[in-house]
Structure formats: structure tokens, C-alpha cells
Amino acid sequence: VKMNLILFKLPQYDEYTNYFLSALLFVIDYLAIVLAEQSAFVLRNWLVSDGGILHISWLNFWVVFPFLYLLFINVEQLYNRRMQFWQVIEKIFYASLYAIVAIIIILYVGQIAASTSRLFIVLLGALSFLYLTFFRYFTKKILAKLQLLQIPVLIIGAGKTAELLVQGIINDAGMGYKVIGLLEDNCVKAGILKRFTVLGKFAEAEAVIEKTGVQHIFIAAPGMEQEKLTQLIYKVQPLVKNMGIIPNLVGIPMGGIEVESLFNEKLMLLRLKNNLARPWNRYLKTMFDFVLTLVGTVAISPILLFIAIWIYKDSPGPVIFKHTRIGKNGKVFPCYKFRSMCVDAKVKLEELLKNDPEAKAEWERDFKLKNDPRITKSGAFLRKTSLDELPQIFNVLKGEMSLVGPRPIIQEELERYGEYVNDYLMVKPGITGMWQVSGRSDIDYQERVLLDSWYVRNWSVWIDIVMLFKTFKVVLLRKGAY
């Protein structure tokens, strides 16, 4: 095989990367658990100063409690699997929960539960989850920065799917892969893949794997003919330890997917679920929204008061703006926002659209204007930081909206959802959601519709939590907001 590029052999230690990383994470987790125990111990004695000093045996403190945590962390496969960090957080949560339950059982069986503070156990459960998460996150970030203990991976394909895959690998702290190069039959277009070397064509996969010694590959070429893909898999699989394949199912709702093999027919059956079509999931989501919003409203009430005074001083008039939006089952509701425009905004918009063809085209395309002359000084800041949407927490408390969900739309936008309109109407719109954390006004409308549909079909509590955390990041960076 004629190779246009000089290929390199990966260092021998790369094959032991997983073992070194597992050992390092084991030590980091142990330190996090011990620190959580110590913090819970100090906090309990400080909070309950008149309840006597808590005593914990050295065996439980240094061996039994950490062992239970490490056991369940291992059961959750956090030492031998690479996954996105939001999945890591989910598994740490369950491992911490199981460990606390196991600790309580051991305390009762050992008849020492009466002498162990319940507050200590509660604090241990909360702090261990936080410390394990932060220790893991910073460890992975440092390793990625230093390019240490990253698993070398070869990407077969260099199209849009491969670009999304590489973007996910680079941007997510949990993955821990190092892309050594690409295989592609066509020219690599401009984008994130331009920074990586094309090591050969699809037909040269065996030679490239042999030359580099890479043991992990991802096939990200969903447009490849089935026969060619099958041949490629059969040729490559015996040469590597792990192979990942991205099938031609991009955008399909895969949350909670169940895989079943039909051996005789050599077929794979995928069972898909529409998560928010299930009444129990919608009830769980409503409870999650209400509890979190109630606590949050009390916490941010001083901020709400400050913003209200600022708006009134900047542009006298109503502080809250009510805009009619379409909610669940097509029900119309008043969506609350801090007023960010002048009081005669509607008249000014009509004049602008009548006299400015470019503004009219932009409005008809996005139902928004990037340089909107109606926005006040305070409103510009509130929109840029998304603080104008804070009053929507009252829509959540009224049961008209969710914390996370599709972006609330007006009547004229419904037709743009086309065949996906039932997904939108099935659930309550959200204060934040997939659109807001994926670029907001920088992405086109059709992609926004697909994001809303994907969210509804793949929903889980953990996805909502991830969306809320990502929202804080997007708001701080002020990306795509205007």
C-alpha cells in the first residue's frame, strides 16, 4: 500500500493507559471520600456543638466507608469505561447513594447506628458526591491539558458526523481520547477536522492500524454503503481492542434505548422510547420543576427586586412584559419577562418593518432582530445575560412552563414545526433548553425544531440537570444572545 504520509508508531505505554488512569482515579476517589468524611465530621461537630463530639472508628473512617464507595463506583463502571462527563456525574450520584445506604445498613447490623450522627451521614452523602465530581472533573481537565493518559483513537470518516464526534471528544472532560488522525476518501473540508492529519483512505485502514499500533477506532461515516461498511468492520475488528460505530441514525431519539440481537437473522433490534409521552415521566418532571423553582425563587428574590427598580428608573413604565405564547396542548398563556423594550415597541416595530426590507426579512426568518432599535439600555444588558427571562419562574410555579423544555413560541411559529409540532405541544415550554445551550440565536430555525423534538423524546432528569448547568455557562459567556 502506498502511503502519502510517514506514519508513526504509538509509544508502548499507550496500551497501559487504561490501567494507569484507573489506578490514578482510584487514588483520587479515595482522597475525595476521605476528605468528604473529614468535612462532614468537622461540620457536624460545629453545627451540633452541644451534642458532644462525634467519634468514628479508624477502621470505618479509613477502610470500611471508603471501600463501600469505591466498590459501588467500580460497579458503575467508572474505572473501565470512557463516557461523557454528564454521564459520569449521574453514575457518581448513584454510587454515592448506594454507598450511603450500605453504610447505614452496616451501622445497624454492627449495632453502632445509635452512636453515629444522622447529620454526619447526610453531610457525608452530599459532600462525597460533590467532592468526587469536582475531583474527577479537575483531574480529567488537567490530564487533557497535559495530554497525559489519553487513549489514542483513529477516526474513520471526515464528514459532518465525524466533526461532531471529534467536537464531543475535545469539549467533554469525561471522554479522555486523543485523536491521532483521520481516514477519508474525500478532501477534508474546513473546520475542526482540519487540525488533524489524514493518514490514508478507507481502503488503507489495515495498514494504518498496523503502522500506528492504534487499538481504538471510531467509524463515523454513516453515508458509507452497507456492503463497504460491513467489509471494513470485518477487516478492522480483529486488529483492534475497541471499535465504535456511529450508524446512520443521527438525530434519532436514542435516550433509554434497548438493544436486542436476533442471532439467527444476524440483525440488531433497537427499541426506542418517547420519554415524555409517558405520564409518570411528565409527573416526575413537574415535581422536579416545582421544588427547584420554589427554592430558587426565594434565593433570587433580592436580584428580582433590584432589576425591577433598575428597569423602572431606566425607562418608566411596566416592569413586567407579558407576551402571549403557545404552551402544552396548544393552550395560550402570558409568558412573563422583564421589559427590555420601550413602551411603544409594537408601533416602532410596524414602522421599522414597513420601511426596512432587510429588517423585515430577518423578522420573518427568525422572529427576532439582531440590532433591534426598540431595546432600552437596561434591556440590552438583560437580554445579553438572559436575565430578562427570570420572571418566567412564576410561569413555572403556575404550571404553564418548565425549567427546561422547548423554547416558548408564538402562534405564527407553530407551522414551522411541521411534522414535529406534536412533540412541542406534548410538553410545557421551558425557560431554558437545548436551543439555549446550543448556540441560541446563532443556529437556524429548523435546527431549533429538531433540538426541541430530540429533547422531548430523550428526556431524563439528568438531561434537565445538565441543561441547567450548561445554561449558566452559556449565560456567563453571553453566546448567541441578543
Integer average pLDDT: 85
What's the number of extended β-strand segments?
Answer: 11
| Morphology | globular
How are helices and strands ordered from N to C? HHHHEHEEHEHEEEHEEHHHHEHEHHH
- Uncertain regions: pLDDT < 50 for 5+ in a row? 1-5
Amino-to-carboxy terminus distance: 54 Å
The helical percent reads 40-55%
**Structural class, from helix and strand content?**
alpha/beta
- The value of Rg in angstroms is 27 Å
Query: Main β-sheet: number of strands, strand sense, barrel status?
Result: 5 strands, parallel
Helix count, DSSP H or I runs of 4 or more residues: 16
Strand content: 5-15%
Spatial sequence of strands, sheet with the most strands:
3-2-1-4-5
* Total number of domains: 3
How would you describe what is shown here?
The protein has helices at 17-47, 58-75, 85-109, 118-146, 160-171, 205-212, 226-236, 279-314, 345-355, 357-366, 377-385, 392-397, 421-426, 434-437, 445-458, 461-477, and strands spanning 151-156, 177-183, 198-200, 216-219, 242-245, 258-262, 267-271, 320-326, 332-338, 402-404, 430-432. The chain contains 16 helices and 11 strands. It starts with 16 loop residues before the first helix and ends in a 5-residue tail after the last helix. With 482 residues, the protein is α/β, with parallel strands linked by helices. Helix 5 links the parallel strand 1 and strand 2 (177-183). The strands form 4 sheets. A 5-stranded parallel beta sheet has the order 3-2-1-4-5. Strands 6-7 form a two-stranded antiparallel sheet. It has a two-stranded antiparallel sheet with strand order 8-9. It has 3 domains: 14-146, no CATH class; 150-250, Rossmann fold; 279-340 and 375-477, no CATH class. Helix 2 (58-75) packs across helix 3 and helix 3 packs antiparallel against helix 4.
